[in-house]
Amino acid sequence: MTSGNYAALFISALALAISVYGVLERRNAARRAERLRLAALIAELDGLHFEQLSPPDGVALRDFVDTINSRRGLLCAQVLNLLPQFRKEIISSELRVLAYALSRAGYPDEANRIWMNAVDMAVKESMPLALFARRGYAYFLFNAGRTTEGRTMMRTAVDALTDTDDGLVMKIETLRFWSIEELDASPGDTTAADDLLDEARELACRVAAPRRRKHAYQLLGASEPESPGEPTGTGPQGPH
Questions:
Q1: What are 70-92's pLDDT values in tens digits?
Q2: Is 137 within a domain?
Q3: 206 — alpha (psi -120 to 50), left (phi > 0) or beta?
């Protein structure tokens, strides 16, 4: 083979390599664009939660909520269409937003599935994210009338936390929120809520750092006692 033939072969191979690289780069660029689109859709869903808190003047509340939920439904459909492409890249906080939006838009089965996925993923991420996912799923279960399952999920959320000061404060906050769900689940019966608040007060006494202990009592709507005692005291919903 002459030097000219080698040169032609080299040029052909180089052109092929550049062509393949170009195809792969275009695919990667398209994938990045789709991931950005997915993130934007989820951010828009999250924004609807806050938009619903401030209905405009002159618009009937029911009509406003229906409009918000219709927008949720459309956005959820687009997110669900993109989701299979990014199963390894999606994070639990994004799934929480999607699950909440699905439940508000009237798709309880899909919402339940996504909530379960969010919990499974969050457990692998961090303790706070696992807490947020479990607590959000518990809210969903309570709202769906699945009270026993909601209690189980709340208890799992509490028991999974550590007994460090930060862990104790998160337990107290969760018990307080849980007590509100119990009041809503059993109007007129405060027994379960009172028991949860008693448990939270006991935990507050165990917080070592003075500033964190003060914050723990503030979560319960109480002032820190000067000596061991039983302060009186008595939460929020959304994807967080």
A1: 999 999 999 999 999 998 899 99
A2: no
A3: alpha
What are the tokens at 155? 């208890």
| Residue 11 structure tokens | 């040029």
* 232 or 96, which is more confident: 96
Kindly report the average pLDDT of the chain as a whole number: 88
Q: What pTM was computed for the model?
A: 0.80
How many helices (H) and strands (E) would you count in the chain? Answer: 9, 0
Q: Which residue has the tokens 């009937």?
A: 60
Q: In a 3-state reduction of DSSP, which class is residue 87?
A: coil
Q: How many CB atoms lie within 10 A of CB 214?
A: 13
In which domain, by residue range, is 81 found?
A: 3-126
Same domain, 13 and 110: yes
Structure tokens at 91: 């994070």
Give 57's DSSP letter. Answer: T
